[in-house]
Queue: 4 jobs
Job 1
Amino acid sequence: MGVYPLPSPPSLAVVFISFVTLSVHPEPALAITRHYKFDVMLQDVTRLCKTRSTVTVNGKFPGPRIVAREGDRLLIEVVNHVQNNISIHWHGIRQLRSGWADGTAYITQCPIQTGQSYVYNYTIVGQRGTLWWHAHISWLRSTLYGSLIILPKLGTPYPFPKPHREVPIIFGEWFNADPEAIINQAMQTGGGPNVSDAYTINGFPGPLYNCSSKKNTFVLKVKAGETYLLRLINAVLNEELFFSIANHTLTVVEVDAVYVKPFDTETLLIAPGQTTNVLLKTKPRHPNAKFFMSARPYVTGQGTFDYSTVAGILEYEVARKTIQSSHSTKKLPIYKPNLPPINDTSFATNFTSKLRSLASAEFPANVPQKFDRQFFFTVSLGTIPCSKNHTCQGPNGTKFAASVNNVSFVMPTNKDLLEAHYFGQSTGVYTPDFPISPLIPFNYTGTPPNNTMVSNGTKLVVLPFNTSVELIMQDTSILGAESHPLHLHGFNFFVVGQGFGNFDPKKDPGNFNLVDPVERNTVGVPSGGWVAVRFLADNPGVWFMHCHVEVHMSWGLKVAWVVLDGKLSNQKLLPPPADLPEC
């Protein structure tokens, strides 16, 4: 399976372009409105010799690529032709004052029901880079996902050498069984869900799995002596991934659609929900070899994981005059990369510590130097009781759960949170009393407490407009320490500090980086450690924050923030669109 150049929007979606003159600049600037249509439909997809009726967008797996430029407006009509309820989240888009388009089921909208449609309407403000879109309801994102590429404004160069070509690479999964049936069964039994049967690169499992042939392998064909921009996206449900290309060095230049100070690495780590842009400089001459591009999980928890390795192939194009020679690509040796051990927390820590914002005049790091509100959130697994007359498969006959500050989040069902907030109808839907710190402090990373039961509720955090926030997220040893990639909707945040053990409020802030910390939308809370982030609550609405390990989110590791309107007209949430779905 070959690859194609990026910049023009693909034919996978219906695209129309109209031009609108903006009046916010002294001189008129040209903005573009791009129209896409997403038909959510069933499509037979075959991998590993197994054909499964799969929920797709436009019959494609993965789904269509969206391409836009910074400043563009996107109108994406999603039509639901399947029996499942649907919502589509545009992961990493700030959605300034357009929370109705965030696409989070029961948080910012009721889902799109069978036979219904909804137009996601938003403008890309101050962002450029690699993001992605995915379903945000149940486990449907296992097949409903695709890349969302934001090019710089016309005439604006990258802050790194211009690549010869740009290639999106999306890590995903293949399940022989229906993922919806898998999570539904797990939620009923209280045990861990069955794992996927393969990882995929751009939808293909590659040559290392049984019953997976060359035609089910992603092949990246490159020319010698060129530079390629690889746009990496981890769309896997439950695992962080190590990634490496044999005998090649990668230069990291961006994470989560924010430029970083470039650095070289043989291997990188990417968590579910995260994106990473790297430059690949090919060898000056044809190397007479092929190279595996391989990924396998970084695992810290005690649960069941898919420990397999996925591979694509990096293949150098042969000059026409040598095609008939002995350099036939079919006979070339294939080199494999040396990936770290699956539990290599030392590598993970070393890699993330290298990430730094550019912090330049053109791309400043506007880190809040002070904070108005501080929060301390424990993120951990836990348990809930088994229903009477049932046998459960969780610890000691309980059901697995997960929580923030020991509150396992309960999703509303009759009204989404944003509507409840906007129309002042929160009674019976949510309460604004989420605890700012654990109600019962304990030795978070020491010997875990005997009682692993969690409480539950739909509790939210309320912030006045423009509040500067410092948030400490602390892993715990309850049911085993584990890395948790936390994603915040509606904002980017600065990762000002991280460490192992229990956060020390007296000593650790002295080591915070307030100059050039990495800015992103999804960060891994270290296994047995903590991470500190800061952000400015300048976007009114209701914003979800959750672990991007899908099973942890299913178990309740999530919370929502309410950011109130500001005083000025441009600081207020816009009214809901007329076609907003009803529950």
Job 2
Amino acid sequence: MAARFNTSLHNALSLLNPFNTPLNTKPFSSRNSFRLSKKLPYYLQSSSTNRALYCTSSSQENGVDGAETFVLTTPLYYVNAPPHMGSAYTTIAADSIARFQRLLGKKVIFITGTDEHGEKIATSAAANGRNPAEHCDIISQSYRSLWKDLDIAYDKFIRTTDPKHEAIVKEFYSRVFANGDIYRADYEGLYCVNCEEYKDEKELLENNCCPVHQMPCVARKEDNYFFALSKYQKPLEDILSQNPRFVQPSYRLNEVQSWIKSGLRDFSISRALVDWGIPVPDDDKQTIYVWFDALLGYISALTDDNEQQSLETAVSLGWPASVHLIGKDILRFHAVYWPAMLMSAGLNLPKMVFGHGFLTKDGLKMGKSLGNTLEPFELVQKFGPDAVRYFFLREVEFGNDGDYSEDRFIKIVNAHLANTIGNLLNRTLGLLKKNCESTLVVDSTIAAEENPLKDTVEKLVKKARTNYENLSLSSACEAVLEIGNAGNTYMDQRAPWFLFKQGGVSAEAAAKDLVIILEVMRIIAVALSPIAPCLSLRIYSQLGYSLDQFNSITWNDTKWGGLKGGQVMEQASPVFARIELNPEEEKKKPKASKKTGKVEVKVEQPQTVAEA
């Protein structure tokens, strides 16, 4: 409470110096032709008695059932066009993190949704012969459909056109206004319609082209409302200094600190020329800037449609977020603008902003505006959700940029999922049926007494958990794969098919070996379930468990000893079929380069810039 009070006190004192800048510096860049009008700022027009200082307590650390709450968000995806692989990558990663946290017994609130206001939305709708509302309905539904195809188990899906969201945005705006951080001014500069953002000339390429969308920015002059971001330079510097884990990975923190150190400028939070948006309170001639609007979706999503829509209610249901998971191209909005907005409104900051890298195609960031996306619907239809989820999480070190090639995709998923994991289960169950009538002869705990494989698996399970907790998803996949490799090595060394032929004590040892290997498979199913949930379910089902039993698993089930003597296994059936391209598909593939011998199709990540 003291920290929030001090922040509010700082806000009040800084009204004497609204831009919070040293006297020997200019608050705004002349290169962007920014000019303040002679209109009085809001905080000078309002009386001091109306300038309230807001302090809002954080939500409870634990849910109603006593479990710790873990709130995870993806960006709210911009609906100017259907989803691309970049959006899918972010959401697959978020879903895996959410599934792992559920295994730990936490009350998870996984939030995703769509950002549906702004000039670009209205333009896209008109280009498709629709009104903006119809357009938003269609594209938002396409995201829901893709998330279903990818086995995304979100808890909340927010649309910024939802009435409950508009109510929260207007209340938040009023709080910031009452705190003296909104004023009116003229702005003249270069505007990127695709980014929905004014740009500094120093950021632009030749012919004033946006570096993200490779298109010229247009000169605009508007009478807008502004948020006094510059007031929060020192508080933001202090936050990043005192809590360096606020922005992750660490190299993203360096980027944010560099932006702040270069000097923060107030930014426009309304648009006079955009009709498709939430009206500014008490000024229906302007709409709220898409970012100021959409970022509030992380809070409005916490409420249910039948609940009283208030900021206090929403915050009490789960705020602050544990992790905002975003692409690095929207890091500035989440790690600079958003924290300052929250401080102004007296709300707690999210615990972490994690900015991951891009997937690329032909060396360029993939995006809807560039028209070079990999279609996720087609990829899932062709290869299935397990393969898509596993490849991108295993092959791209989370946080860094990554590439896609179809040859490597097929090679990886066949080697890891079909061979290392699937084939081990298949041949073990086959031997069990042939020699033990598909029945386990002894408890797995007894079978593994003084067996070093048990110790190896336990160490790898611990390694996987640590990597999941650190959001090192690729390393978590690798740890689980190592468990599979250990199981295969054990199978080859013990050669139970040979021991069964010898009979007697050797056959008894072989029967125990099968129990040990199947226990390894059971643990793999649990540890891999955040990454490939359907594959894990198929493994669990062949081990004789029901769907309800699978849905009830926790991370504690990675402990050795789950399988019991007398359990009957299902018939062996491939849990992951090898991917084989038919001759027609082979003909369509691009020819391999002479230099590498590989067919390179670099894919992309991320978010259109105006996603929140």
Job 3
Amino acid sequence: MHGRLKVKTTEKQAEAKRVEREQKLKLYREATEAIFQKRQEGHLDESVLELTSQILGANPDFATMWNCRREVLMHLETQKSPEEFATLVAAELGFLESCLRVNPKSYGTWHHRCWLLGRLPEPNWTRELELCAKFLEADERNFHCWDYRRFVAQKAAVPPAEELAFTDSLITRNFSNYSSWHYRSCLLPKLQPLPDSQPPGRLPEDILLRELELVQNAFFTDPNDQSAWFYHRWLLGRADPKDAIRCLLVSRNEACLTVCFSRPIIVSPGIETLMLFVDKSPLPVEWRTPDGRNRPNYVWLCDLPTDFFNGQSPQHSFSLMWGEVQKECVLYKGLKESWCQDSATDEQLFRMELSMEKSTVLQSELESCKELQDLEPDNKWCLLTIILLMRALDPLVYEKDTLKYFQALKVADPMRASYLDDLRSKFLMENYILKMEYADVRVLDLSYKDLTLLCHLDQLLLVTHLNLSHNLLRSLPPALAMLRCLEVLQADGNAIESVEGVVNLPRLQELSLCDNRLQHPLALQTLASCPKLSLLSLECNPLCQLEAAPEELRAMLPGVDRILT
């Protein structure tokens, strides 16, 4: 291999090697057994260090041996004077370095070095940084050494600017260095304090523009290396949104209050606390998720006392406090429901804000990537980046072009066709949510879109009619339970085998699941939790071939007036 001539060995030479291996194996086993025996008897002395050195010098990845050494060192620390123990530690550091020369990517060796230095009163962090530089000089992509360098830099309080300069030197030498690019993503947000108006995690514009230029040079130098493309995708990402209550919905008929948050939370003492005030008086309530699982969720709801709605008061005010965030909603007499929802632009929902300068840079990058794609038509990273740049600039304006590039990307990268279908579905749903936001409607038609998954369902809290017909869906996910106002759901012509997500939908009246892959009536048992369901259409499903299916369905769903099979 690699141009080396394979030299044939004689039977005598092969036999000599076999005997040598057996002798080494015998010594290895004897040393291992001796170590375990001493450990069992509690003899934690320097002889154990010597025996483990023999084992680890040949095989640094024997984790139990490192554990033995740590036990011995902790014992000797109590037995020896500080000067004697310092000499022992210096020898241990030298031994570790020799092990790293045997295997520079040994998990156990790097971990043991972290442990050892963490116990020293005054470690020589400068020497450790030099050690990292030496090993990264030999292999700049040794992620074990990068992890250790981050540990050392943190302990030594090295300024982020100095570490960033170090990554500059290695990236300049070799753009194909994912660990170095990743380290930059950790360092850049720490470079300088952000203005109060800028969310944490988002880069100042001057730094972002500089990084975009650097990474563009990288992927034009080596278009097939994925590390720079990944870093570019991180640069295009958006920071975590500020905590916000996106929507507050009060229903008189259901005596229920529903809340949608900007991120998934768990409402529990000591984790997240919500305070509800009704007519300016605090009201203790029990919070739950729509699907009843009480796991991290965007949507939480609580029951309200029915006597609140029986009085003669002309209105009721509801105020919810979540930390420093507050939202209010008023339910007037005669109304069945009321809500308070913040209007949101696409930049607030799905992409970063663009200044004129940033938009100009991204537009230039888009044109450059298109030129590169003409030269490298099968480069999947270039195609994906074109899609992401279009999304960052304007997802609605570039919607048709984005879909065309997805088709080309699936041809260039058929191994990830399913992932790309899901990503395409995610982007399409984002676009239609934006269109619905601008039109201020509660009806959403997603039929004939070749969707393979449903996402951002927390944005559809107020939707009453949803059409998912003629897509490529295989199930209706549990997140569908967040659609608390949904009255009509159409999902004909998919490949649905499970409807576990259609659960606890208080207003669902009509459900159409024709021409799917529902095999048995038991696949529909969660529908019993939808109290107002009156029409269920199941034509052209495999379960329709079962003679007993109609009777089983009527027995399982007694509240449904019409079941069409």
Job 4
Amino acid sequence: MALAGCPDSFLHHPYYQDKVEQTPRSQQDPAGPGLPAQSDRLANHQEDDVDLEVLVNDMNASLESLYSACSMQSDTVPLLQNGQHARSQPRASGPRSVQPQVSPRQRVQRSQPVHILAVRRLQEEDQQFRTSSLPAIPNPFPELCGPGSPPVLTPGSLPPSQAAAKQDVKVFSEDGTSKVVEILADMTARDLCQLLVYKSHCVDDNSWTLVEHHPHLGLERCLEDHELVVQVESTMASESKFLFRKNYAKYEFFKNPMNFFPEQMVTWCQQSNGSQTQLLQNFLNSSSCPEIQGFLHVKELGKKSWKKLYVCLRRSGLYCSTKGTSKEPRHLQLLADLEDSNIFSLIAGRKQYSAPTDHGLCIKPNKVRNETKELRLLCAEDEQTRTCWMTAFRLLKYGMLLYQNYRIPQQRKALLSPFSTPVRSVSENSLVAMDFSGQTGRVIENPAEAQSAALEEGHAWRKRSTRMNILGSQSPLHPSTLSTVIHRTQHWFHGRISREESHRIIKQQGLVDGLFLLRDSQSNPKAFVLTLCHHQKIKNFQILPCEDDGQTFFSLDDGNTKFSDLIQLVDFYQLNKGVLPCKLKHHCIRVAL
């Protein structure tokens, strides 16, 4: 058996050759190449001419080459962060450098710290990969990594943070107070209104809205429920602000569509049967082509003069006719586009823009902030005509999306648990006349019986007040004095405001039937005024005090129906129309944020 690393003189020795020939193959030493032969094979020879020192040196050199070969195929390789072996890289071919001869003790000391060096190198590489902010994360799918990329997720390979950005928005109320709210970038106007309702402890009757107010331009509009607040704020100037107010007429079109569009103002591309359902479908269907037409006062761009022109509103934009009432394509001139614009109401059109009437509207491009030259200013003859044009603009621009905004609150209300009572205002037809004279209460359905029951209740209040006057009251306020001031705690009472201010508040919160407020009378210091909206017109009714048996009462019908205080009067007319054109349904409210 030949030994790797032994000299030729040792292999050609006569005694060694004879032993090899006489030894069977099955009894040969099973040791691998490069290992020394056992010493008992050389124990019986009588003469040994081999130089032992040369033999030892040759065997040491053989062990050195064996160690180098094994170290190349060793399973002990540096580990990466996830505990996997690094891929072996091909070594460059070339002549192997001859290592100097070292003593056996030095060889043993050098072969021990191989694993320690690998661990130290691993720690140094790990410090390079790690950062102070984000540690290296083991890769759960190492088989997906390519040969050239390490199977670890480095900080640079991680996706950016998807956290939604937040922004502070300042919202003002009607009384001048404000609140700064932190909102997300994807918060809609409806979401912000619900948040403000919760923070202000208001009644959520789905009539609150966010108003985009531009005092320097004299414009304002109600945001649609689906609009993003941050996106709208990015188009506003520094002087502009958001207002939080009621708007009962926001979706009144879907409740009473026939009251919004006079027949002479609407033309259809197909025959319409005139029903409410057909009217809604024509506006919500994008394939239909409804047109709103009529005369409007139009302000010329860059000039102070106004012209009365025949205008038509289509899905493609707002056009005016250059020749009478002709709607031929050659006679139509584009005034404004619907896509990149919004429609606003003029706050003080007569004073700021010399408008011919108080019913002005404006089509403002989204890119305009402070300039008035690009504003398309229009003016209608009455409030109903202006409401028709503004409602048609919203329907043609948003279409089905506007109807979905109207349906969402109703769907949420329908999904409420039967055990949970929805919060709603007492002015939303939730009051009925009741009779508690018997053992159980009953609803009074007969209007005449309800009126007589209200009169009896008024007489009962009168007797109670008289008895309190006779016996004396422990309250610091006398009962007669209390009845004249208790109404000041109610939301529907607005104190000393002018007639013009009360009309402005009614218009801002929506010209719907039954919208009302009470205020002090300017002509009579002891009287009050009920301001009521009916058929988009505002009417005023004076509430006069009257005395009976030394007590002060209030009446709307010259003393025929008397009430001990204004709270009782309002409660009565919420149930009964009486001398009013309609019942009191919604009250104007101002909330302090």
